[in-house]
Structure formats: C-alpha cells, structure tokens
Amino acid sequence: MDINDLLPHVLKKRVIARIEHETLYIHNRKEYPFKDEYVACNSVEEIAHALSSMVTQGGGVLQVVLTSMLFIARHMEQHRIVCSIEALLENITIITDARKTNTTAKRVVDRILMNLQKMLIISHLQQSMKR
Question: pLDDT tens digits for 5-34?
C-alpha cells in the first residue's frame, strides 16, 4: 500500500496539484470543505496568480511548485516555452516569487536547480573532453 492511500483527501499529492493534458489543476483549499474544486492553470502566470491568491497553503505550495516544474518541462517539449535552463529558471522564479512568505518552496527549488546546473556543466565538460 502506498502512503498516499493512507492520507486524508486534501493531503494527497494528486489532490493538491496534478497535470492533465496541458493544464495544471490546483486544489482550492479556500473553498474546501464547502466545495471540492480545482483552479485550472494553463500558463506559468496563471499558476503564480493562483498561488498568490492563496488557493493552497503550507506544504501544498511546495507540491504545486514541484508539479509546476513538470508543467514547464512539458510546455518546453511542446515548444510553448523556450527549452533552455534560462527559461526554466525564469519561469519557476515567477512561480516561487508568487508566495514570498513560503520560503520552503523557494529553498527546495533553488537546491534542485543548483544541482541541475552543476550536472549540466559537468555533462558539457565531459562532452568537451571527448572531442
């Protein structure tokens, strides 16, 4: 059994944030438990707006930000967003800056991106040395 199966409805990863087709859905905690609804986001700006309007709180912000990284990657694959590390940094910064008070999401993403950049540099150096 997966730990996610044991969690209450509002704490399940797929409930907090999920991607379907080209849309990221964020569970609207402002309305819960009176309404069990989602905010549909089709762009980085819409995700940032949802976060700044507090549709999710606490650890939900981190889940939304991490799911947003997948959203951005998919949009890069579909050529909706330029496919570059610079574009990834720019777009994820728009999202993390939307909730200045949630520093956990920003710190985690910064560590992920720092390690990703290191890996890309190492890979580039290794490829250069083979030539």
Answer: 888 888 888 999 999 999 999 999 998 999
CB atoms within 10 A of CB 1: 5
Give the integer Cα–Cα distance in Å for 112 and 124: 18
| Amino acid at residue number 88 | L
Report pLDDT digits (tens) over 35-64: 999 999 999 999 999 999 999 988 899 999
Residues 125/101, Cβ–Cβ less than 8 Å: no
Which domain, by its residues, includes 77?
3-130
- Are 87 and 76 within 8 A, CB to CB? yes
CATH code of the domain in which 30 resides = 1.20.120.420
Nearest to 68 by CA among 47, 37, 40: 47
Residue 14 three-state SS: helix
